[in-house]
Amino acid sequence: MTLEKMDDFIRQHRDDYLNQLFNLLKIKSISTDTDEIRNCANVLKGDMESLGIHTEIIETAGNPVVYGEILNDKNRFTLLIYGHYDVQAVEPLELWHSDPFEPEIREGRIYARGAGDNRGQLMAQLLGLKTYQALYGELPINVKFIFEGEEELGSVHLADFVHNHKTLLEADLVYTADGSSHNSGNPLILLGVRGVLTLEMTVSGADFDNHSGNTGNIVPNPVWKMVELLNTMRDDQGQVLVDGFYDHIREPSDKEIELLKRLPYDQADIAEKIGYGDLDMDGASYYHKLTMEPTFNIAGIESGYIGKHAKTIIPASATVNMDIRLVADQDPEYVFEKIEDHVKKVNPDVVVTYKGAMRPSRTPAELEIVQVVTDAVGHAYGKEPLVQPSMPGSLPDYVWTEILNTPSIIMPYANFDQHNHSPNENLKVENFLNGIKCTCNLVRELGERSRE
């Protein structure tokens, strides 16, 4: 009966809930637009205060954090909800089928920048609390909120913020609604993230581009130097050859291996959705590579001339941009040092530049709170959720597990094909409403468990 009450209430208030989301989606809170970021933070603050959340905007060295709390001394459990109100840029604008900041519904999907990443999921969490308050009254747990405005920039000031506000942010669990659901459509619980290290390697030759005939065999070509270096860093099977690269990797527990085996795998469906028809691996390998293994990815190479005209040159320089996904217990700074050492041995003329990093994180699957959340999500959706030890991508999850020493669980509400960071980003209306229900039921069941 409780879940039916939630369904009925959410259905009755569907249009009001969508309007509240649309008001937020209309704000052009691109991370680098400080005026619109401020506007969005203030609107979000007002939305939170209307729910009885004590809210304040707290400054950082960059974009502000919107912090809120509903506390009651008699409650024994504290939930910290994390999200972000900043969004990616919208270019190329001509590929959008509608204005990215004028949300509209087409065929059951909300189209707008930030619909899925992350303002739709953020709003579902807030409206889940609103639903609980309307149905049951006072919250049975303490709830804190931290919504940042720099996630799309790499959360550059979040770690410092958490370090400086440890007492304020104390909690028993951090809960994040971000990312995409499983491609099967089943609810998905994520217990961690891969970290990321970004770097740039540049090698130079002459002071300027040279005529490839007049100086061929005379002026060295930096592209060949870069190719020769890259060939020493990875073998034909994809194994990274940098000494120390695989140091300190946390081996998956028996429980985590069991969870990976339970995940559904449809090779043909995944191949179609990622646009790679040659996908050829079994489910165990697929999920292990996505969650338990680091990557060594070349994101881009820049050198010389590629165009429709003829231009015979020896380029003056060659640059490679890399993003390296890291798994639990790998240290980005340590990995960067090992890469630097390798490059110096092979070609000391190559300059390696550190661009940024985010540490990996993983909450142990064996914790009791993981089962509590799994049960609550399962009851809300009417089906057992998939539990994945880590998501393939990166979020600043480590600030909770390493700085706050608090378990962290990620529950994506958005559909798998949300097209976040791309034109025509969308969130299914059904996913939005289910996220509201899931949040409401999570609060209810956490309250029941804390009383026990």
Provide structural commentary.
The strands form 6 sheets. The chain has a 6-stranded mixed β-sheet, with helices on one face. A hairpin with a 6-residue loop joins strand 1 and strand 2. The protein is an alpha+beta fold. Helix content is 35%, strand content 20%. The model has no long low-confidence stretch (mean pLDDT 96). The protein is built from 13 helices and 19 strands.
Class by helix and strand content?
A: alpha+beta
Q: Low-confidence parts lasting 5 or more residues at pLDDT below 50?
A: none
Q: Helical proportion?
A: 25-40%
CA-CA gap between termini: 21 Å
Number of β-strand runs: 19
Could you tell me the strand content as a percent range? Answer: 15-25%
Radius of gyration: 24 Å
The order of strands across the largest sheet is 1-2-6-3-7-18
- Report the total helices: 13
Q: Describe the global form.
A: globular
Q: Major β-sheet, in short?
A: 6 strands, mixed
Average predicted confidence as pLDDT: 96
